[in-house]
Amino acid sequence: MKTCFAIPLFAVLSTTMSTSSHLSGASTGAQQQSYFVYLGSYGQGIQGYRFDAANGALESIGLAGKVENPSWITADRDYRHLYAVSELQGNQNGGVASFAIDRKSGKLTSLNQVSSKGKAPCHASVDATGRMIVVANYTTGDAVSFAIEKNGSLSEAVSIEKAHGSGPNKERQEGPHAHEAVITRDNTRVYVPDLGLDEIRIYKIDPATAKLTPNDPPNAKAEAGSGPRHIVFDHNERYAYVMHELKPFVSVFRRDPATGALERIQEVRTIRRDFTKENTGAEIRIDAAGKFLYTSNRGEDSIQVFAIDSATGKLNQVQNISTEGQQPRGFALDPTGRFLLAGNQKSNTLVVFKVDPSTGKLTPAGKKIETPSPVDVFFVPAS
After folding, report:
1. What pLDDT is stored for residue 22 in this prediction?
2. DSSP state of 127
3. Which of 128, 144, 163, 294 has its CA 20 to 30 A from that of 134?
4. Domains identified in the chain, total number
5. pLDDT tens digit string along 63-76?
6. Distance from C-alpha of 204 to C-alpha of 93, rounded to nearest angstrom
7. Is residue 301 part of a domain?
Protein backbone atom coordinates (compact mmCIF):
# COMPACT_ATOMS: atom_id res chain seq x y z
CA MET A 1 0.00 0.00 0.00
CA LYS A 2 1.69 3.17 -1.19
CA THR A 3 -0.69 5.75 0.24
CA CYS A 4 -2.49 6.07 3.52
CA PHE A 5 -5.74 4.84 1.98
CA ALA A 6 -6.84 1.46 0.73
CA ILE A 7 -9.47 0.88 -1.94
CA PRO A 8 -12.72 0.17 -0.07
CA LEU A 9 -14.77 -2.96 -0.55
CA PHE A 10 -17.85 -0.84 -1.12
CA ALA A 11 -18.02 2.40 -3.09
CA VAL A 12 -21.12 3.36 -1.15
CA LEU A 13 -22.25 5.76 1.55
CA SER A 14 -20.62 5.07 3.92
CA THR A 15 -11.61 12.25 22.38
CA THR A 16 -9.53 15.22 25.92
CA MET A 17 -8.34 17.78 23.43
CA SER A 18 -7.30 14.70 21.84
CA THR A 19 -4.08 13.08 22.26
CA SER A 20 -4.70 12.05 18.69
CA SER A 21 -6.24 15.37 17.69
CA HIS A 22 -9.74 14.14 18.46
CA LEU A 23 -11.70 15.88 21.17
CA SER A 24 -13.18 14.28 24.25
CA GLY A 25 -16.39 14.92 26.08
CA ALA A 26 -14.59 15.60 29.35
CA SER A 27 -15.72 19.22 29.25
CA THR A 28 -19.37 18.29 28.71
CA GLY A 29 -19.89 17.19 32.30
CA ALA A 30 -19.65 13.90 34.15
CA GLN A 31 -23.34 13.13 33.64
CA GLN A 32 -23.25 13.28 29.84
CA GLN A 33 -24.47 9.94 28.52
CA SER A 34 -25.78 10.64 25.02
CA TYR A 35 -23.40 11.15 22.11
CA PHE A 36 -23.27 11.09 18.37
CA VAL A 37 -20.65 8.89 16.75
CA TYR A 38 -19.45 9.91 13.29
CA LEU A 39 -17.54 7.45 11.14
CA GLY A 40 -14.93 8.44 8.62
CA SER A 41 -14.93 6.06 5.67
CA TYR A 42 -14.18 5.53 2.03
CA GLY A 43 -17.42 6.29 0.26
CA GLN A 44 -19.78 9.23 -0.27
CA GLY A 45 -20.40 10.44 3.23
CA ILE A 46 -20.12 10.50 7.01
CA GLN A 47 -22.24 7.87 8.71
CA GLY A 48 -23.84 8.89 12.01
CA TYR A 49 -25.00 6.96 15.09
CA ARG A 50 -26.52 7.78 18.45
CA PHE A 51 -24.40 6.29 21.23
CA ASP A 52 -25.60 5.54 24.76
CA ALA A 53 -22.59 5.69 27.08
CA ALA A 54 -24.53 3.91 29.82
CA ASN A 55 -24.71 0.62 27.92
CA GLY A 56 -22.72 1.03 24.70
CA ALA A 57 -25.76 0.85 22.42
CA LEU A 58 -25.58 2.32 18.91
CA GLU A 59 -28.52 3.51 16.80
CA SER A 60 -27.99 4.57 13.20
CA ILE A 61 -29.09 8.03 12.06
CA GLY A 62 -27.94 7.25 8.52
CA LEU A 63 -25.95 9.56 6.29
CA ALA A 64 -25.12 12.58 8.46
CA GLY A 65 -23.15 14.62 5.92
CA LYS A 66 -22.06 14.25 2.30
CA VAL A 67 -18.36 14.38 1.37
CA GLU A 68 -16.29 12.00 -0.73
CA ASN A 69 -13.92 9.65 1.15
CA PRO A 70 -14.07 11.40 4.56
CA SER A 71 -11.19 9.40 6.03
CA TRP A 72 -10.58 11.66 9.07
CA ILE A 73 -12.98 13.74 11.16
CA THR A 74 -12.41 16.38 13.83
CA ALA A 75 -14.25 19.36 15.35
CA ASP A 76 -13.77 22.58 17.27
CA ARG A 77 -13.71 22.46 21.06
CA ASP A 78 -17.30 23.63 21.41
CA TYR A 79 -18.58 21.02 18.93
CA ARG A 80 -20.24 23.64 16.78
CA HIS A 81 -18.42 22.73 13.59
CA LEU A 82 -17.11 19.47 12.20
CA TYR A 83 -14.31 19.08 9.66
CA ALA A 84 -13.47 16.16 7.40
CA VAL A 85 -10.65 15.56 4.97
CA SER A 86 -11.75 14.35 1.55
CA GLU A 87 -9.15 11.80 0.55
CA LEU A 88 -9.68 11.77 -3.18
CA GLN A 89 -7.93 9.09 -5.20
CA GLY A 90 -5.89 9.44 -8.35
CA ASN A 91 -3.98 12.56 -9.40
CA GLN A 92 -6.40 15.20 -8.12
CA ASN A 93 -5.78 17.18 -4.94
CA GLY A 94 -7.85 16.28 -1.92
CA GLY A 95 -10.19 18.54 -0.01
CA VAL A 96 -11.18 19.71 3.46
CA ALA A 97 -14.89 20.05 4.20
CA SER A 98 -16.62 22.04 6.95
CA PHE A 99 -20.05 21.36 8.48
CA ALA A 100 -22.33 22.86 11.12
CA ILE A 101 -23.35 20.24 13.72
CA ASP A 102 -26.99 19.90 14.77
CA ARG A 103 -26.50 18.61 18.31
CA LYS A 104 -30.15 17.52 18.59
CA SER A 105 -30.46 15.42 15.40
CA GLY A 106 -26.82 14.70 14.65
CA LYS A 107 -27.22 15.93 11.09
CA LEU A 108 -24.44 17.93 9.46
CA THR A 109 -25.04 21.00 7.29
CA SER A 110 -22.36 21.64 4.69
CA LEU A 111 -20.62 25.03 4.94
CA ASN A 112 -17.89 24.76 2.30
CA GLN A 113 -15.05 22.65 0.95
CA VAL A 114 -11.59 23.83 -0.11
CA SER A 115 -8.60 22.17 -1.76
CA SER A 116 -6.09 20.58 0.61
CA LYS A 117 -3.36 21.76 -1.81
CA GLY A 118 -1.94 18.25 -1.91
CA LYS A 119 -2.81 14.63 -2.57
CA ALA A 120 -4.48 12.18 -0.20
CA PRO A 121 -5.14 14.30 2.91
CA CYS A 122 -5.49 11.86 5.79
CA HIS A 123 -5.59 13.92 9.00
CA ALA A 124 -6.57 17.32 10.40
CA SER A 125 -6.45 19.15 13.75
CA VAL A 126 -8.26 22.29 14.93
CA ASP A 127 -6.36 24.60 17.27
CA ALA A 128 -7.67 25.45 20.75
CA THR A 129 -9.01 28.86 19.70
CA GLY A 130 -10.99 27.44 16.78
CA ARG A 131 -9.30 29.90 14.42
CA MET A 132 -7.14 27.53 12.36
CA ILE A 133 -6.91 23.96 11.15
CA VAL A 134 -3.83 22.01 10.02
CA VAL A 135 -4.05 19.20 7.46
CA ALA A 136 -1.57 16.43 6.57
CA ASN A 137 -1.41 15.46 2.88
CA TYR A 138 -0.04 11.93 2.76
CA THR A 139 1.01 11.44 -0.86
CA THR A 140 2.63 14.84 -1.39
CA GLY A 141 3.86 15.09 2.22
CA ASP A 142 2.62 18.64 2.89
CA ALA A 143 1.47 20.18 6.16
CA VAL A 144 -1.11 22.83 5.23
CA SER A 145 -2.88 25.39 7.40
CA PHE A 146 -6.22 27.14 6.87
CA ALA A 147 -8.03 29.92 8.71
CA ILE A 148 -11.46 29.14 10.16
CA GLU A 149 -14.03 31.89 9.59
CA LYS A 150 -16.50 32.99 12.28
CA ASN A 151 -19.27 30.88 10.75
CA GLY A 152 -17.03 27.78 10.78
CA SER A 153 -16.23 27.75 7.07
CA LEU A 154 -12.67 27.43 5.80
CA SER A 155 -10.41 29.89 4.02
CA GLU A 156 -8.13 28.88 1.20
CA ALA A 157 -4.73 27.56 2.29
CA VAL A 158 -2.69 30.05 4.34
CA SER A 159 0.64 28.21 4.51
CA ILE A 160 2.05 25.07 2.91
CA GLU A 161 5.05 23.39 4.52
CA LYS A 162 6.77 20.88 2.26
CA ALA A 163 9.52 18.37 3.08
CA HIS A 164 12.17 16.55 1.09
CA GLY A 165 14.03 13.27 1.32
CA SER A 166 13.33 9.54 1.49
CA GLY A 167 13.76 6.48 3.69
CA PRO A 168 15.29 3.02 3.32
CA ASN A 169 12.02 1.29 2.32
CA LYS A 170 12.05 2.05 -1.41
CA GLU A 171 8.42 1.01 -1.93
CA ARG A 172 6.88 2.98 0.96
CA GLN A 173 9.46 5.68 1.69
CA GLU A 174 10.30 7.07 -1.76
CA GLY A 175 9.45 10.58 -0.51
CA PRO A 176 7.87 12.47 2.39
CA HIS A 177 4.48 11.19 3.61
CA ALA A 178 2.87 13.37 6.27
CA HIS A 179 0.47 11.10 8.13
CA GLU A 180 -0.88 13.29 10.91
CA ALA A 181 -0.84 16.88 12.21
CA VAL A 182 -1.40 17.02 15.98
CA ILE A 183 -1.62 20.38 17.75
CA THR A 184 -0.39 20.46 21.34
CA ARG A 185 -2.64 21.25 24.28
CA ASP A 186 -0.70 24.47 24.94
CA ASN A 187 -1.58 25.52 21.37
CA THR A 188 1.96 26.45 20.37
CA ARG A 189 3.10 23.67 18.05
CA VAL A 190 1.92 21.01 15.63
CA TYR A 191 3.69 17.65 15.30
CA VAL A 192 3.65 15.87 11.94
CA PRO A 193 4.74 12.20 11.87
CA ASP A 194 6.29 11.59 8.45
CA LEU A 195 6.14 7.95 7.37
CA GLY A 196 8.46 8.54 4.40
CA LEU A 197 11.24 10.39 6.22
CA ASP A 198 11.27 8.48 9.55
CA GLU A 199 10.87 11.67 11.51
CA ILE A 200 8.35 13.76 13.40
CA ARG A 201 8.31 17.22 11.85
CA ILE A 202 7.62 20.13 14.23
CA TYR A 203 6.08 23.51 13.40
CA LYS A 204 5.04 26.54 15.43
CA ILE A 205 1.47 27.74 14.94
CA ASP A 206 0.04 31.27 15.02
CA PRO A 207 -3.76 31.13 15.40
CA ALA A 208 -4.07 34.88 14.74
CA THR A 209 -2.71 34.45 11.21
CA ALA A 210 -3.22 30.67 10.78
CA LYS A 211 0.41 30.40 9.69
CA LEU A 212 2.92 27.61 10.24
CA THR A 213 6.65 28.19 10.73
CA PRO A 214 9.41 25.59 11.27
CA ASN A 215 10.28 24.91 14.88
CA ASP A 216 13.81 24.86 16.28
CA PRO A 217 14.55 21.96 16.36
CA PRO A 218 12.57 21.25 13.16
CA ASN A 219 12.13 17.50 13.73
CA ALA A 220 12.83 14.42 15.83
CA LYS A 221 14.30 11.28 14.31
CA ALA A 222 12.72 7.84 14.49
CA GLU A 223 14.35 4.49 13.75
CA ALA A 224 15.24 4.05 10.07
CA GLY A 225 12.50 2.22 8.17
CA SER A 226 9.97 2.43 11.01
CA GLY A 227 7.50 4.73 9.23
CA PRO A 228 6.07 7.03 11.96
CA ARG A 229 2.29 7.20 11.52
CA HIS A 230 0.43 8.70 14.52
CA ILE A 231 1.44 10.53 17.70
CA VAL A 232 -0.22 11.18 21.07
CA PHE A 233 0.91 13.09 24.15
CA ASP A 234 0.39 12.41 27.83
CA HIS A 235 -1.90 14.91 29.55
CA ASN A 236 1.00 17.08 30.78
CA GLU A 237 2.73 16.84 27.39
CA ARG A 238 5.92 15.65 29.03
CA TYR A 239 5.93 12.51 26.88
CA ALA A 240 5.00 11.69 23.32
CA TYR A 241 4.08 8.26 21.95
CA VAL A 242 4.53 7.44 18.27
CA MET A 243 2.85 4.49 16.54
CA HIS A 244 4.86 3.24 13.57
CA GLU A 245 3.30 1.74 10.47
CA LEU A 246 6.19 -0.16 8.90
CA LYS A 247 7.66 -1.74 12.05
CA PRO A 248 5.50 -3.12 14.89
CA PHE A 249 6.42 -0.89 17.80
CA VAL A 250 5.66 2.30 19.70
CA SER A 251 8.39 4.84 20.42
CA VAL A 252 8.29 6.81 23.66
CA PHE A 253 9.80 10.32 23.58
CA ARG A 254 10.52 12.75 26.40
CA ARG A 255 9.31 16.22 25.37
CA ASP A 256 10.85 19.58 26.26
CA PRO A 257 7.86 21.96 26.54
CA ALA A 258 10.10 25.02 26.16
CA THR A 259 11.62 24.04 22.81
CA GLY A 260 9.25 21.30 21.60
CA ALA A 261 12.20 18.91 21.20
CA LEU A 262 11.64 15.16 21.50
CA GLU A 263 14.16 12.69 22.97
CA ARG A 264 13.54 8.99 22.30
CA ILE A 265 13.69 6.91 25.52
CA GLN A 266 11.90 3.60 24.80
CA GLU A 267 10.77 1.25 22.02
CA VAL A 268 7.96 -1.21 22.80
CA ARG A 269 6.81 -4.02 20.52
CA THR A 270 3.09 -4.08 19.73
CA ILE A 271 2.30 -7.41 18.02
CA ARG A 272 2.93 -10.93 19.30
CA ARG A 273 6.43 -12.27 18.68
CA ASP A 274 5.03 -15.41 17.03
CA PHE A 275 3.07 -13.36 14.45
CA THR A 276 5.07 -13.40 11.22
CA LYS A 277 2.55 -12.36 8.55
CA GLU A 278 2.33 -8.92 6.96
CA ASN A 279 1.31 -6.22 9.43
CA THR A 280 0.98 -2.44 9.49
CA GLY A 281 0.49 -0.29 12.59
CA ALA A 282 -2.48 2.09 12.64
CA GLU A 283 -4.04 4.10 15.50
CA ILE A 284 -2.84 5.20 18.95
CA ARG A 285 -4.86 6.72 21.83
CA ILE A 286 -4.55 7.56 25.53
CA ASP A 287 -7.48 7.19 27.93
CA ALA A 288 -9.02 10.20 29.69
CA ALA A 289 -7.32 9.33 32.98
CA GLY A 290 -3.90 9.21 31.34
CA LYS A 291 -3.22 5.73 32.72
CA PHE A 292 -3.43 3.55 29.61
CA LEU A 293 -2.35 3.71 25.99
CA TYR A 294 -4.03 1.79 23.15
CA THR A 295 -2.74 0.88 19.67
CA SER A 296 -4.08 -1.08 16.70
CA ASN A 297 -2.41 -3.32 14.14
CA ARG A 298 -3.69 -4.37 10.72
CA GLY A 299 -2.61 -7.89 9.82
CA GLU A 300 -2.62 -9.23 13.34
CA ASP A 301 -5.99 -7.36 13.50
CA SER A 302 -5.68 -6.50 17.14
CA ILE A 303 -5.67 -3.77 19.77
CA GLN A 304 -2.91 -3.55 22.33
CA VAL A 305 -3.25 -2.08 25.83
CA PHE A 306 -0.27 -0.57 27.67
CA ALA A 307 0.00 0.73 31.23
CA ILE A 308 1.77 4.10 31.45
CA ASP A 309 4.32 4.64 34.23
CA SER A 310 3.38 8.11 35.52
CA ALA A 311 6.90 8.75 36.80
CA THR A 312 8.88 7.80 33.69
CA GLY A 313 6.32 7.83 30.88
CA LYS A 314 7.41 4.35 29.86
CA LEU A 315 5.03 1.58 28.77
CA ASN A 316 4.28 -1.95 29.85
CA GLN A 317 1.93 -4.07 27.74
CA VAL A 318 -1.01 -5.62 29.61
CA GLN A 319 -3.19 -6.98 26.77
CA ASN A 320 -3.35 -7.89 23.09
CA ILE A 321 -6.92 -8.59 21.89
CA SER A 322 -8.55 -9.35 18.53
CA THR A 323 -10.79 -6.66 17.05
CA GLU A 324 -13.12 -9.40 15.72
CA GLY A 325 -12.64 -8.14 12.18
CA GLN A 326 -10.08 -7.22 9.55
CA GLN A 327 -7.86 -4.13 9.33
CA PRO A 328 -8.67 -2.06 12.45
CA ARG A 329 -7.37 1.25 11.12
CA GLY A 330 -9.32 3.58 13.41
CA PHE A 331 -10.75 3.33 16.92
CA ALA A 332 -11.70 5.67 19.76
CA LEU A 333 -12.48 5.57 23.46
CA ASP A 334 -15.86 7.04 24.33
CA PRO A 335 -15.65 10.26 26.41
CA THR A 336 -16.80 8.51 29.60
CA GLY A 337 -14.03 5.92 29.27
CA ARG A 338 -16.40 2.98 29.55
CA PHE A 339 -16.18 1.75 25.96
CA LEU A 340 -13.84 1.52 23.00
CA LEU A 341 -15.24 1.45 19.45
CA ALA A 342 -13.05 -0.20 16.80
CA GLY A 343 -13.63 0.16 13.07
CA ASN A 344 -12.61 -2.84 10.97
CA GLN A 345 -12.05 -1.34 7.53
CA LYS A 346 -11.81 -4.51 5.45
CA SER A 347 -14.61 -6.48 7.13
CA ASN A 348 -16.92 -3.43 7.30
CA THR A 349 -17.80 -3.62 10.98
CA LEU A 350 -17.78 -1.39 14.04
CA VAL A 351 -17.17 -3.38 17.23
CA VAL A 352 -17.82 -2.21 20.79
CA PHE A 353 -15.54 -3.23 23.68
CA LYS A 354 -15.98 -2.63 27.41
CA VAL A 355 -13.05 -0.96 29.19
CA ASP A 356 -11.95 -2.03 32.69
CA PRO A 357 -11.02 1.28 34.37
CA SER A 358 -8.62 -0.35 36.83
CA THR A 359 -6.59 -2.42 34.33
CA GLY A 360 -7.38 -0.77 31.00
CA LYS A 361 -8.19 -4.18 29.56
CA LEU A 362 -10.88 -4.70 26.94
CA THR A 363 -13.66 -7.27 26.68
CA PRO A 364 -16.13 -7.59 23.78
CA ALA A 365 -19.45 -5.93 24.66
CA GLY A 366 -21.39 -8.16 22.26
CA LYS A 367 -22.24 -5.27 19.96
CA LYS A 368 -21.14 -5.29 16.33
CA ILE A 369 -22.72 -3.30 13.51
CA GLU A 370 -22.25 -3.51 9.75
CA THR A 371 -21.01 -0.27 8.22
CA PRO A 372 -19.00 0.36 5.04
CA SER A 373 -15.23 0.80 5.33
CA PRO A 374 -14.98 2.49 8.77
CA VAL A 375 -11.54 4.09 9.21
CA ASP A 376 -12.12 6.81 11.83
CA VAL A 377 -14.38 7.14 14.89
CA PHE A 378 -15.35 10.51 16.36
CA PHE A 379 -17.61 11.39 19.33
CA VAL A 380 -19.74 14.54 19.73
CA PRO A 381 -21.95 15.12 22.81
CA ALA A 382 -25.67 15.31 22.01
CA SER A 383 -27.78 18.11 23.45
Report:
1. 65
2. -
3. 294
4. 1
5. 999 999 999 999 99
6. 25
7. no
